[in-house]
Design brief:
mainly alpha; 3 strands; disordered N terminus
Length: 385
């Protein structure tokens, strides 16, 4: 029987490695940025949804009240995961994959999934709330890839033990996502996987093959379904069908034009009066552009860039490979999803239906993304000083 090695103060090296130090500048910054983004988002959601909430619930506070409840749950998730040793998250990877995959399968079954606009992506919860399992799949994918690439660091350039298992899990998730269908989340998930594999040090040639296959698959799926190809057509020329497929893009750009440099003022925009569909969710950035102008729009981009820079800094200072990969995966997730949403709102990218992290209305997105931010703050607390 081997004895446990302890230092003079009675603590083992493993215990010290798992113990979090005092908050660092990076961990405080993550908390500050995420909380600011959420509070700002709540204000904009109230402005963007008050009219539609009044029509659907009889109260202008309906959507805002639900989002506040989701925010409180997200805050708890972020707080817990910012303190739970991230090195121990590996023991929960199997359960996370099973739960996320099972729930994504469940939404496809009649009687369980909620169909909205032709897509089955949600499960009904009490209090007129819904949960979107595909959001949890992003966190599960990050945890799985980080844990596997950290444990197999010495064999990471052997594609059979690094790329293949990650792609098997991604392929299973992607298949379930495309059955919903949900191409936007699949693209975000693919970006997370590719960046984590690249930073994890896998061989470039097989990674290049995987990247080409993913890109070809995305193009094929985008052109295969009529509604997706119409979105691409609307992206290229929204005025070809201004009252149907091009309507959201045109109204989004009108909102930015109305905002000018300084905006019309919070609550004084016109887009949320029914002119811009999904104003409080996928197109919240357009409402920001109308009500806060170019100044507010650039401020949101600056916020995303700040999170990106901070995430890279945390990854570089991570105490181990697991922490580095977690920081890379979560940062990629937040930044890529943010710019896909912003790109769709300004007309630079086709509409994919992904929310703006921390700011758009959407409870499951907020809770899971805040949980990811908690892990990022966790890595920052344990980072090299």
């Amino acid at each position: 029987m081997s004895a446990t090695v302890v230092d003079r103060d009675g603590s083992s090296p493993r215990a010290r490695r798992l113990a979090a130090g005092p908050p660092t500048a990076e961990s405080r910054a993550i908390w500050a940025l995420v909380l600011f983004a959420n509070v700002f988002g709540l204000v904009m959601i109230l402005s963007a949804s008050s009219v539609t909430s009044l029509q659907s619930t009889g109260s202008p506070w309906g959507q805002f009240s639900r989002q506040v409840l989701w925010f409180l749950m997200g805050f708890v998730a972020m707080f817990v995961l910012s303190r739970y040793p991230y090195q121990r998250l590996g023991r929960w990877v199997g359960l996370a994959l099973l739960v996320s995959g099972g729930l994504m399968f469940l939404v496809l079954l009649p009687g369980f999934g909620v169909n909205v606009n032709g897509a089955s992506r949600w499960i009904n919860l009490p209090a007129d709330m819904r949960f979107q399992p595909s959001e949890f799949a992003k966190l599960a994918m990050v945890l799985y890839a980080a844990d596997l690439l950290a444990r197999r660091a010495t064999h990471v350039r052997e594609w059979r033990v690094s790329i293949r298992p990650v792609m098997v899990v991604f392929g299973g998730f992607a298949a379930l996502l495309m059955l919903q269908p949900n191409l936007g989340t699949t693209i975000v998930l693919a970006a997370i996987v590719l960046v984590m594999l690249l930073v994890g040090g896998v061989a470039l040639r097989p990674l290049g093959v995987v990247t080409a296959a993913m890109a070809s698959g995305a193009v094929w799926f985008a052109l295969r379904e009529g509604y997706r190809s119409r979105r691409i057509t609307a992206f290229l020329d929204p005025w070809a069908d201004p009252l149907n497929t091009g309507h959201q893009t045109i109204q989004s750009q009108v909102a930015f034009a109305n905002g000018g440099v300084f905006g019309a003022g919070i609550g004084r925009g016109r887009a949320q009066w029914g002119f811009l569909p999904e104003a409080h969710t996928d197109f919240i950035y357009s409402i920001i552009g109308e009500e806060m102008g170019l100044v507010g729009s650039v401020a949101v981009i600056a916020l995303v860039v700040a999170i990106a820079v901070l995430g890279v800094r945390i990854a570089l200072r991570a105490p181990d490979r697991m922490g580095m990969l977690l920081a890379v995966g979560i940062t990629t997730w937040i930044v890529v999803q943010s710019f896909i949403n912003i790109g769709a709102c300004v007309g630079a990218l086709p509409i994919t239906g992904v929310p703006l992290p921390f700011i758009s209305a959407g409870g499951s997105s907020m809770v899971v993304t805040m949980a990811g931010a908690g892990i990022l703050a966790n890595v920052a607390r344990r980072g090299r000083r």
